[in-house]
């Protein structure tokens, strides 16, 4: 018996298949999931998601979201899931720079929702850049 993983973004189902293990970027730290894991629901932060399928390790940059874990299935709902080949390093750097500049120009009384949005853009850009650069070296 194996573990079934589904990774879903608002645009599409990114992956659905059998895996032997999954590493998720939980808000309280990285979580390793194996078959038979206790049921849980956890928030995810932007970072790296890794899974092993058919002896091959696959790594993705993911955004914020949630993971629902049962003993035989993991559902990942996230606002971004990109493999290394899908990441445009220049675009990610530009998005991060724009968000940092906008954040730096905001006043103390500005909208907290806008601040959170900009911080999310920065976190997702960093996740993409970290994945791209680690695999380049």
Q: Which short descriptors sum up this protein?
A:
137 residues; alpha+beta; ATP Synthase, domain 1; 5-stranded mixed β-sheet; 5-stranded antiparallel β-sheet; 2 helices; globular
Structural account:
It is a single chain. By secondary structure, the chain is an alpha+beta fold. The chain folds into 2 domains: 3-84, F0F1 ATP synthase delta/epsilon subunit, N-terminal (ATP Synthase, domain 1), CATH 2.60.15.10; 87-136. Helices cover 30% and strands 42% of the residues. The strands form 2 sheets. The chain has a 5-stranded mixed sheet with strand order 2-1-9-8-5, with no helix packed on it. A 5-stranded antiparallel sheet has the order 4-3-6-7-10. α1 (89-104) packs antiparallel against α2. The longest helix has 25 residues, at 112-136. The mean pLDDT is 91.
List the helices and strands and how they pair.
Layout: E1 3-8, E2 13-19, E3 21-26, E4 29-34, E5 40-44, E6 47-53, E7 56-62, E8 65-69, E9 73-78, E10 81-83, H1 89-104, H2 112-136
Parallel strand pairs: 1-9
Antiparallel strand pairs: 1-2, 3-4, 3-6, 5-8, 6-7, 7-10, 8-9
Helix pairs in contact: 1-2
Mean pLDDT: 91
**Neighbour order of strands in the largest sheet:** 2-1-9-8-5
The number of distinct structural domains comes to 2
Give the count of helical stretches. 2
Looking at the overall shape, the CATH architecture of the largest domain is Sandwich
So what's the CATH class of the largest domain? Mainly Beta
- What is the tally of beta strands? 10
Q: Rg, please? A: 16 Å
Task: Note the run of SSEs as H and E.
Answer: EEEEEEEEEEHH
Domain ATP synthase epsilon subunit C-terminal: 85-130
Domain ATP synthase F1 complex delta/epsilon subunit N-terminal: 3-81
Subunit structure: F-type ATPases have 2 components, CF(1) - the catalytic core - and CF(0) - the membrane proton channel. CF(1) has five subunits: alpha(3), beta(3), gamma(1), delta(1), epsilon(1). CF(0) has three main subunits: a, b and c.
Keywords: ATP synthesis, Cell membrane, CF(1), Coiled coil, Hydrogen ion transport, Ion transport, Membrane, Transport
């Amino acid at each position: 018996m194996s573990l079934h993983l589904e990774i879903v973004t608002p645009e599409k189902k990114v992956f659905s298949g059998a895996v032997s293990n999954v590493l998720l970027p939980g808000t309280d730290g990285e979580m390793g999931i194996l078959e038979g894991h206790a049921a849980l629901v956890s928030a995810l932060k932007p970072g790296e998601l890794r899974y092993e399928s058919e002896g091959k390790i696959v790594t993705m940059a993911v955004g914020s979201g949630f993971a629902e874990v049962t003993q035989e299935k993991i559902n990942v709902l996230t606002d971004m899931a990109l493999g290394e080949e899908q990441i445009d390093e220049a675009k990610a750097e530009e998005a991060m720079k724009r968000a940092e500049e906008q954040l730096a120009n905001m006043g103390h009384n500005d909208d907290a929702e806008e601040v959170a949005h900009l911080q999310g853009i920065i976190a997702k850009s960093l996740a993409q850049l970290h994945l791209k650069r680690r695999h380049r070296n």
